[in-house]
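PROTEIN DESIGN WORKSHEET
SECTION A - STRUCTURE
LENGTH: 411
TOKENS:
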């Protein structure tokens, strides 16, 4: 539905693609230059191979047609094609345009999808003039910039909560400060919650009055199952391993699309992956009382046992010592399908603080973690809006002036 001022041309005249460049691990050097592979940034190097801004497109397999963007000079790997010439077009518009482009129609592979620039360059496309390209890129970029801001804020708030957990419940800093007469650095109401000395235990020194227990003393596993196929036309929030890996954003799916029995996910729980536990997959889920939410049986659904709250359980499951102990429980010979089982996980030894410090931690960390969930929820809405607008704007179905009012409401 492009308008008369848009121009039809072969894709290769809009952007010229070329295969990326090999960079073996032994040749990579520490630096700040992003390495873009089949799924986007895969690492860092000390020299670029292409100027920024740049765009890459995954060439094969699961990465076929995955488009990534770098605002700075970068190194494009040979697992992707990259743009070597934008022919005067706006690079960020080209990024969004290629995301909306149907690469599946130009699959040159057989058993495995494969993208060959000689197949895709002749494809006819219709593109707007440069001024409208920039306007479209600005609209979609505004949404992406807000999503990135939310991601950074979420990471910062979560890091603060985890740092507080480590200080109080791993390093026992308030106890050590009191023992050494330095407790004035800690606010008096907090200082009064902690003992003044450490005692030996089977897991090393712990604060006086605290106990050594098990992870199962802190959390209760929930085993309620649901078969979404029994409700084929109902909508479910599906917390899966791929959804976690793709940004911790559950997918809204109809029951008929979810092909196996799942575990129910009620509000206020933490999900802990049993699959490949060396990969840290601990999910502070955002579930409302009226949501119909399910998760993969590869997760444990964990409800905190009082006085522990969700923030304490979440930070404990992400703490370095717990992760190391969890990784030691794996079974299975295949590297890609190692698992830890529920009973040994729940039997892992943990330090159980007294009630006062746990409740104080929840008061301090709870609002921080709640804000991270709000950021993710907002980003999910913005991403859905961006994904809906992108094909309409890049095809001319929706014009810039009509899209502005949607953005104004969302941002």
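SECTION B - SEQUENCE
RESIDUE ASSIGNMENT:
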């Amino acid at each position: 539905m492009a308008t008369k001022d848009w121009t039809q041309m072969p894709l290769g005249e809009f952007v010229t693609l070329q295969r990326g460049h090999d960079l073996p691990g032994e040749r990579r050097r520490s630096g700040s230059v992003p390495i873009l592979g089949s799924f986007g940034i895969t690492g860092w190097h000390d020299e670029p191979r292409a100027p920024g801004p740049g765009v890459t497109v995954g060439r094969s397999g699961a990465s076929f047609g995955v488009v990534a963007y770098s605002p700075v000079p970068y190194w494009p790997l040979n697992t992707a094609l990259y743009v070597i010439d934008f022919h005067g077009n706006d690079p960020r518009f080209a990024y969004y345009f290629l995301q909306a482009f149907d690469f599946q129609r130009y699959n040159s592979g057989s058993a495995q999808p494969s993208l060959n620039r000689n197949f895709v360059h002749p494809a006819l496309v219709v593109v707007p003039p440069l001024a409208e390209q920039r306007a479209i890129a600005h609209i979609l970029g505004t949404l992406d910039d807000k999503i990135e801001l939310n991601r950074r804020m979420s990471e910062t708030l979560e890091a603060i909560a985890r740092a507080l957990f480590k200080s109080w419940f791993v390093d026992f800093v308030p106890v050590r400060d009191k023992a050494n007469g330095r407790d004035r650095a800690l606010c008096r109401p907090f200082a009064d919650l902690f003992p003044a000395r450490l005692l030996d235990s089977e897991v090393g020194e712990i604060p006086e009055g605290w106990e050594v227990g098990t992870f199962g003393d802190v959390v209760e596993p929930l085993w309620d199952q649901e078969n979404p196929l029994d409700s084929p036309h109902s909508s479910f929030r599906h917390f899966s391993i791929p959804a976690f890996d793709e940004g911790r954003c559950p997918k809204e799916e109809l029951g008929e699309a979810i092909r196996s029995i799942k575990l129910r996910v009620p509000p206020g729980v933490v999900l802990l992956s049993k699959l490949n536990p060396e990969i840290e997959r601990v999910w502070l889920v955002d579930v409302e009382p009226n949501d119909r939410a399910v998760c993969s049986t590869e997760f444990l659904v964990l409800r905190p046992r009082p006085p522990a709250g969700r923030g304490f359980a979440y930070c404990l499951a992400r703490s370095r010592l717990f992760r190391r102990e969890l990784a030691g429980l794996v079974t299975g010979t295949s590297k890609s399908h190692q698992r830890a089982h529920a009973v040994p996980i729940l039997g892992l030894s943990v330090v159980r603080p007294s009630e006062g410090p746990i409740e104080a931690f929840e008061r301090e960390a709870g609002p921080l973690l709640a804000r991270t969930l709000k950021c993710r929820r907002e980003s999910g809405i913005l991403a859905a809006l961006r994904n809906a607008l992108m094909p309409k704007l890049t095809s001319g179905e929706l014009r810039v002036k009509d899209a502005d009012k949607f953005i104004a409401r969302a941002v």
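SECTION C - NOTES
The CA atoms of residues 181 and 296 lie 49 Å apart.
The chain has a mean pLDDT of 92.
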